[in-house]
Here is the input.
Amino acid sequence: MITIRGDMLEGGGQILRLSTALAALMGEPIKIVRVRGKRRPPGLRRQHMTALEVLASLCNGRVEGLRLGSTEVFFEPGDIGGGSYRFDVGTAGSVSLILQAAMPVMVFAPSPVKLRLRGGTNNPMAPPVDYLERILLEDLKLMGVEARLRVYRRGFYPRGGGEVEVQTQPSRRLKPLVLQDLGRILEVRGLVYSCRLPSHIANRMASSASERLRRAGLDPVFEREVLQPGNPKCSLDPGCGIVLSVKHSYGFFGVDNLGVKGKRAELVGSEAAEQLIKLVEGGYPVDRHLCDQLIVWMALADGVSRVKTIELTLHALTCIELTKTILKAEFKVEGDLGKPAVIECRGIGYEK
Here is the structure.
């Protein structure tokens, strides 16, 4: 049995989600102690319980300690299976974070998997589902992952209520991923979205971001999604945001920014544009959030993956430590915490 301390490094829910997903892939029982030990309050919250329920269903597993506030969890995986699954977080807790844990298990199922989740789709503490769809899944496609994401309804704080469905096809061995250079910038895309708000808010976000990007020599193409009550995709609560993505010679990266009450729409757009420009001008093909999301896939791949990121985060270091411990993948990191870095991984060539 593997034992993982939930207060190591990042010390949050990521440790619980990722270690349980890796245990499901390896078919090994795992105990996580001091769950979310660096959060106040520590222990399980509703979204973490849903993640465990999803993973247990995907692998016919068993969970002990599945209750609010629990600081110790035991997870015994069974066999990974295909099929259709449906879960409701019950809050505005992020469905993106649950999907990050579930997808590595889903793609190694022996048959297609369809997972429908209800909760928060656009959350200030997590990447929006649009980021997963437009950036993460595009890079994973280069590794051989077949996955489609569809947003049926957006969900913002405080009530959530968003609905997302991900469908995956079975994968065998994943190809390694090398993202060291940009090569040529092939496409810059933007999405601005708003629910239950005047249409000028989305337009102002797009105009502000577009103006700043064009001054930097980039030529973005924007989509606008302005939803009002009566549209089935419209959220229960008002909200807005922007996602910018870049397609370059070797892959995809991007940034996002969520609107906040009292913050001008122009600032939401220009902040996102500034972040993207830093990545482009610095020649960084991996943004800070993409980096930690790619670690598990690099560890599972067959061969040597290498990525250059604008910032080495504690989340990325936590993912590296967990995949080294549970998967026995080999990593080499050149760079310091909070600084640009190159991460190299010799993956284990996982297959079911």
Q: What stands out?
A: The mean pLDDT is 97. The helical segments are 13-26, 46-58, 95-106, 129-143, 199-215, 265-282, 288-300, 314-327.
